[in-house]
Amino acid sequence: MKADDVILFANVAELGSFKLAAEKYDLAYSVVSKRIRRLEDDLNVQLLHRTTRKLSLTEAGVSLLPTAKQMALLTQDAVQSVSTIRETMKGHLQVSVPTISGDLLLAECIADFCHQHPGLNIDVTLSNRFVDLIDEGFDLAIRTGYLEDSSLIARHLIDSQWIVCASPTYLERCGQPSSPDALVDHNCLHYTYQSTGAADWEFFSDDKMDNTVSQPVYKGQCKEKRIVRVSGNFSTNNATALRKAALAGYGIVYVPRCLVYHDLLNSGLIDIFPSLVAKRLGIYAIYPFTRHPSNKVKMLIEHVRDKYQSMSHYFL
């Protein structure tokens, strides 16, 4: 049984609504529902009667509620007891950031934040690995992709659009593919560090395309999407190495737009399908739900978000 689930139950019971509890903790409704079900499974009892109109406590829920409220109050007291420390912009923060955004803007952005607050020391780790924030002692992580761990809170910062591009040298030598399906006849260099298969490139559907090569069309939120499976003779988990290989004319790459923004401007790389690439991932600031966010963490998140937004043309 997780103490945080018990405290969440106390708030659900007090507010009489999963929706209101979700809004209070800035969680998705589904996360609140899932955590209450997990608590019931841990205790092997039903705590709430759920109907379309209202929630009501079972006998077990009534029995647990006083203890749950006491746990919530103790947590609140603990937070208040260190509120003075929380509100000061001093101390140390451990932050994990992805390599592409770290190189592009986050290293300078976080250094600027430290300059504004001389009493604060921030240790920044550049890594694409999804660190365990609690076990590894991180106060904050900036991550691209999907949040699966319900014990973490995510603040959306910006979306990151992916593109398919190649150098003019490669396109002159091998020809420019007329459609995504034509990529199967090209040397497509693989970025192996991504949430989906490195050889599975995602596009919006086009009725004019040859559907015999790619996998079946599936439904997206707005448009139909499809996967084209490509192949190539070079792969790497390092985005910088992939960019250099593309600039040298060795093949076509599928990468975040921000990685090659300046190369597109100076025509070092050419965006081949500017309106057809479907992959767009959210970038999030993530911190543990079990740890009450300090003022310095909240201010750092806002500082980072403002920086991303000021450079949105790199990402979208």
From TrEMBL:
SUPFAM superfamilies with a match to the protein in the record: Periplasmic binding protein-like II, Winged helix' DNA-binding domain
PROSITE patterns: HTH_LYSR
Signal peptide start-end: none
Keyword Transcription regulation on entry: yes
Annotated Gene3D superfamilies: 3.40.190.290, Winged helix-like DNA-binding domain superfamily/Winged helix DNA-binding domain (1.10.10.10)
Keywords linked to the UniProt accession: DNA-binding, Transcription, Transcription regulation
Domain HTH lysR-type: 1-58
Family statement drawn from the similarity comment of this UniProt entry: Belongs to the LysR transcriptional regulatory family.
Protein name: LysR family transcriptional regulator
Organism, as annotated: Enterovibrio norvegicus
